[in-house]
Design goal:
Number of domains: 1
Radius of gyration: 16 Å
Oligomer: single chain
Largest sheet: 2 strands, antiparallel
Shape: globular
Structural class: mainly alpha
CATH superfamily: Chitosanase, subunit A, domain 1
Number of strands: 2
């Protein structure tokens, strides 16, 4: 079974620390957690009653880890995925693309690989069982291609996102 701590280490290697890139639609980001995400989710990390730039700038690794476990890893039941690399990849895609999109990409890959799953963006027992029933090397090969295509499509629709192309492609093929 996949371990959150192992996946978090890989995720943080891609996410890094505080940034406030003008082309990032999420706004200021720290440890990969954006101000936009905090606002939309109603998460106030410093618990001062206001969700603002200070919440992002002063986000601790411990708090970021708690947010990732509570709002991404556990709701996606990724601990039930047998292969650590696959769980880590899906976790990373969900963080960067949104849970629904990350899971849909996995489901599309599973269908491509002959599994019968609904493509609904929800990580339920059907998706977990299908994931555990396919050779993880095949899943990873297809997920890498699907992630790269998703990033290229985003850049095509919004050229200012080209600023993230190199990092996104590294992430897609990791």
């Amino acid at each position: 079974m996949a371990a959150f701590e192992d996946a978090l280490g890989v995720l943080l290697a891609h996410e890094g620390g505080f940034t406030d890139h003008p082309s990032d639609p999420g706004g200021a980001t720290n440890y990969g957690i954006s101000l936009r995400y905090l606002e939309e989710s109603g998460i106030d990390p410093n618990e001062d009653g206001t969700i603002d730039l200070r919440d992002v700038r002063n986000l601790t690794l411990e708090k970021a880890s708690s947010i990732y476990r509570t709002y991404w890893w556990d709701p996606m039941f990724l601990s039930q995925v047998n292969d650590q690399v696959v769980a880590t990849k899906v976790f990373g895609m969900a963080v960067n693309m949104g849970i629904g999109t990350g899971v849909r990409l996995l489901q599309e890959v599973l269908v491509l690989l002959g599994q019968v799953v609904s493509i609904d963006g929800r990580m339920g027992p059907q998706t977990i069982n299908a994931t555990n029933g396919v050779d993880p090397r095949w899943i990873m090969a297809e997920l890498r291609c699907a992630a790269a295509k998703r990033y290229r499509d985003l850049i095509d629709r919004n050229p200012k996102l080209n600023a993230f192309r190199i990092g996104w492609m590294r992430r897609a093929y990791a």
